[in-house]
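INFO batch 0412 | record 1 of 1 | parsing
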Amino acid sequence: MSRRSRSVVPYLILWGILAFLGVFLGWPLFYVFRGACVDQSGFSLTYMQALVTDPIQLQALGNSLMIAVLVTLSCLIVSLPMAWFMARRAFPGKAVFAGLLLVPLILPPFVGAVGLKTLFARAGSLSALLMHLGLADGPVDWLGRFPMLGVVILETMHLFPVLYLNLVAAFANVDPSLEDAAANLGASPARTFLRVTLPLSMPGIFAGATLVFIWAFTELGTPLVFGMRRVLPVMIYDSVSEVGTNPLGYARVVLVLLISALGFWLSKRLTRRSQHVATLGRLSVTRQEAALGGFPLIWLYLFLGSVLLVALLPHISVIMIALSRRWFLSVLPEGWTFEFFGRALGSDLTQRAMLNSLLLALTACVIDVVVGFCIAWLCVRRKLVGSDWLDTVAMLPIAVPGLVIAFGYLGCFSAYFPGSFLDPRTNPMALLAVSYAVRRLPYMVRAAHAGLQQTSVTYEEAATNLGASPLRVIRRITLPLLTANLLAGTVLCFAFSMLEVSDSLILAQSDQFYPITKAIYALMEGLENGVNVAAALGTWAMALLGAGMIWAACLLGKRMGAMFRAG
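INFO prediction complete | emitting tokens
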């Protein structure tokens, strides 16, 4: 390969990646904006104005914002003290708790909603317990009275580890000499935390809180299962059948996208302002973790144990539903069986769903490995003109909800490629695989980016000086050195693609193309122990994602938090 060809190839890769992201990320977003803001007379904000003038639309927007704010605040209250102790104190069992705190991520919240409905429904465990204790005269429909409370609790249980991971990294990166200086000047530990530690940790707080807010604001499955229809994501889901005919659906999607993008922009802006201060001198000073013992240790164990018990309640209840013969107005199931686990693996619907999810997740992983590595390589090794923009564009799927991408795919590809393999109404498999890949691309980019930054370029330069071509250098030197990082990113992409919710619920319209999550939702609506079979399928999926999370955590170690960072 000539020198001129070597200089051209990186730019060809750059433009190829930009074209891929333009077609499968930029174009659907543009199509959605056009559908919401353009009518027969040209540019118009009529439908956007309808969202802020119609009482029903305003109620849906208010409910969605309320859920997102309450979930973010709840996650912050739970995660802040936990992260501080995990980052600053040494105590027996710390590694065990650090692993257990990631367990809530292994169950999609809409699957956990099945378990909570059984516990808190009118004929659920809580009503039976209160009646048995004589504290209630009859069954109480807790979720019917307070559906938003159920959504907030369940999403908090699922999302607090995301904020916790960011906070642990933020507290660990604060320069300890600044805290020591405050203490030497007479500041109490509480004052030092409030005036020094907390302000310097704001980059991690903003990054994690933004991701939690966007995730909760755009969550589709949980309010759908709880029957809370007046929220924007569910109203968007209900308007899927009107794609191409009712612009109000596009307007809702644009509103969700604008609010998510605004949150992401504010996080990036606030993070950029304060990030350089937090790590001042951090590399030259080593923090010694203080040992914790006595009553503080007991209180910490009680706090961590209580959080884990509440957070794992949906997981436990889902497993119990999968094992129960009958669970109606009783505190515990009446009879146990493994029958539903067999039915979850043996029916035509679930077998097709598992094969579909396996094929889609593997295809998405291949796309992410190739595209993610190329993006990281261009940004770290080549530093081409525009590579910084490429890295920013690659991280956009964190700020763009899956529900927005799926709705855009359904609109633009069914309109321009009717009847083809790219028409999701005919066969959504190709677009499902691409949407999974686009949604999880940031994980692979961050994993490969971290690996390249931590790997010395000396080995690659030595191979180049010995006459190896760039492709041979990458194949024989770079890729082997990045094996652990790429494998960790692949495991995360695969596990989360297997349990992707929004894309699956919107794009998969026919049962022959259902992935696992759409099959679980369909089983919930079915009769003849459909909920039990759905819970069993959710348990199998939970085991798969749990194994993937543990494997990725072992490979990435403390870098795991970078996978869930918005800033």
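INFO post-check: Strands lie at 38-39, 42-43, 89-90, 290-291.
INFO record closed
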